[in-house]
Amino acid sequence: QLQLQESGPGLVKPSETLSLTCTVSGGSISSSSYYWGWIRQPPGKGLEWIGSIYYSGSTYYNPSLKSRVTISVDTSKNQFSLKLSSVTAADTAVYYCARHPVKVVYAIIGEFDYWGQGTLVTVSS
Amino acid sequence: DIQMTQSPSTLSASVGDRVTITCRASQSISSWLAWYQQKPGKAPKLLIYKASSLESGVPSRFSGSGSGTEFTLTISSLQPDDFATYYCQQYNSYSFTFGGGTKVEIK
CA of B76 to nearest chain A CA: how many angstroms apart? Predict the structure, then answer.
């Protein structure tokens, strides 16, 4: 059974960089069939896609966050990571990692079918 | 960016009711739409993909329909376990966006 687990600091100071890692177990992050994504949810609010990465390192980012986001992959550790720079209180959220399949025939990256449990990151001094 | 608008934002219903949630896209997304259920403190759970395909293990009382810009999620007979928040999400482009959510409350 595929499992995703987010890890990283729960508290980050304003203007600093938020760093999270997602560890994948029960499956290989190097599969050609999937992209791996980050999604966040501010307390009491809706879901926002941050970005996604392929095992080769190919990335797509939310245009509204692109200038501050870096997503990387470490296939040897079966992990992918998120860095969000220059954080403010508005970046306080539960951060989820998730998997989404590549629909090769349609040239589409699909729905998020497996999710981690999420980790709350608070931005505060 | 493609904007997704859900309605209503809150819905009060009783066990056994038929419930319909609507999601509209700001431009055509073909059938590239998913629906998720989220309960408090939990990650979203995939219910429907490609507008009308039921994810494995999801009860058949959930169904999805639509294409282009207008989509619906229907729960044919609301069960106690279904009180939750529901989100739509488009994946037509390589920039994924979610609707604002619909909270289904007990009437």
Answer: 23
- How far is residue B37's CA from residue B103's CA, in Å, rounded to a whole number? 10
How close does chain A come to B83, measured CA to CA in Å?
A: 16
pLDDT given at position A106: 83
Q: Give the Cα separation of B10 and A2 in Å (integer).
A: 33
CB A117 within 8 A of CB A52: no
pLDDT digits (tens, 9 = 90+) for B30-55: 999 999 999 999 999 999 999 999 99
CA torsion sign for A64, A67, A68, A70 is: positive
For chain A, percent of residues with pLDDT exceeding 70: 100
Return the pLDDT at A103. Answer: 86
DSSP β-bridge partners for residue A120: A94
